[in-house]
Amino acid sequence: MLARVWSASIVGIDAIKVGVEVDVSGGLPAIVMLGLPDSAVQESKERVKATLKNAGFAFPMRKIVINLTPADLRKEGPCFDLPISVGILAASDQVNPDLLGDYLFLGEVSLDGSLRPVAGVLPIAAAAQKMGITALVVPTDNAQEAAVVKGLQVYGFENISEVANFLNSPARHQPVELDETLEISHDTTFIHKLDLKDVKGQAHARRALEIAAAGGHNLIFVGPPGSGKTMLARRLPDILPPLGFDESLEVTRIYSVAGLLKNRGKLIRDRPFRSPHHSASGPSLVGGGSYPRPGEISLSHRGVLFLDELTEFKRDVLEFLRQPLEDGHVTISRTKQSVMFPAQFTLVASTNPCPCGFYGDTLQQCTCSPNKREQYWGKLSGPLMDRIDLQVAVNRLKPEEITQQPNGEPSEVVRERVLIARERASERFADIKTLRCNAQMQSRHLQKWCKLDDASRNLLEMAIRKLNLSARASDRILKVARTIADLAGDENLQPHHVAEAVQYRTIDRMQ
């Protein structure tokens, strides 16, 4: 007898409908798996056989052919355990097959018959309605995660016996209802709680941090050891606005696919903050593998990617960042498939000004030769630095600043100004869904919303000549000036907005 069960596979962060066809026929007992299964799927043959026997079902001692469609799509992971089990039960007349055409099954099985959660349930649930699926059958631990998607019935079960009872008597079971207290609460994947009020001095750097948060601008801090670069950078997430629902769904989907969703049933509401070590490889940063998975820049989507000690990263690794910083996504091509991951993140970096760390310091003399400093900064290419909007020198604190009590504004006050500036930008971009902050503006948008008067234009032209700025760098200055104007509540750009934006481009190439 032939039975067909629907499941799904993840490609990138999207779901593709997969048919699990099970044919039980006469012949010597054997299980044949077709349809490009990986090792985990191949192993499901023995796993499912033991599961059904231990759960009290009769395993058919005949030839079983399992075909996963489409045949040219690689199937990977343990999520096909449950649909294969259901297919075998349906093909051997142990469960009613009437519901199989409208339901989608996902889950890993244990040898005792219990169901284990799998990664990627949220994007599959989000795509299920487009597939023509009316309901999902998943392990209990995945039920709240899938129930986040509105308008889709979700059934969660603890073991394979409960799934069989459901298929034979569906009227006795009710779909899972989303616990609203879970859905609206914060996922604890990101816990920051670092307040700007604890920062001593550094008014210039604090101002740059506020501008970066208000406009989504990339930022680099350059200064001697102990000047507070890392401390400042780690406080950026707490002055960023919370994620909107659509943004939250995007981020949660990525973490679901990556298997990093700690609290299933909760949308991630806080901006991601990722801080990879400087020994990170290119694939770990942008994503990769034989069957691509998201890297650090995609895990930072809608949030912050912090690269501490930027000049310690390998130059070829840093060059991977250029295209995602410009396009907001990364495309990973392999022989067998090509996938695109979203990567709209704010890059925040910190570095010393030279190998010894004291070039330009007023208290300690630099011991590096000009040649060493040139080699040190040679790791950062001109095109990469062009893409960093705010380049800020962070000086060592004076002795009297170190001993005094912090008296700066708390993050809550700064965040209020950031929210107001973002609201102004949102009103401006109301008709353009692809724009969410000033940093995402293109040249055509600059011509419309960053018009300069004669004084501002002369100031910008003088800066371009003096600093030898590229066209991209000059566009970045206009974007920063637009954000400064939003923070000030000004509709039009003024010369002092442009002047402040220009001062953040003075470290393009330190020698």
Question: How would you describe what is shown here?
Answer:
The chain has helices at 39-54, 81-91, 121-128, 140-147, 160-168, 180-183, 203-215, 229-233, 245-257, 282-286, 296-299, 315-319, 322-327, 370-377, 382-386, 399-403, 411-428, 443-449, 454-467, 471-488, 495-502; strands at residues 2-11, 14-25, 30-34, 63-69, 103-105, 108-109, 115-116, 135-139, 153-157, 219-222, 273-274, 287-288, 293-294, 304-307, 329-333, 338-342, 346-351, 390-393. It is α/β, with parallel strands linked by helices and 511 residues long. The strands form six sheets. Strands 11-14-17-10-18 form a five-stranded parallel β-sheet. A four-stranded mixed β-sheet has the order 1-2-4-3. It has a three-stranded parallel β-sheet with strand order 5-8-9, sandwiched between helices. Strand 1 and strand 2 (14-25) form a beta hairpin. The protein is elongated. Residues 182-188 have low confidence and may be disordered.
Largest sheet: 5 strands, parallel
Shape: elongated
Mean pLDDT comes to: 90
Fraction in beta strands? 15-25%
The helix tally amounts to 21
Low-confidence stretches: 182-188
- The side-by-side strand order for the widest beta sheet comes to 11-14-17-10-18
Provide the gyration radius in Å.
28 Å
The structural class is: alpha/beta
Number of strands: 18
Q: Helicity level, as a percent range?
A: 25-40%
Distance N terminus to C terminus? 75 Å
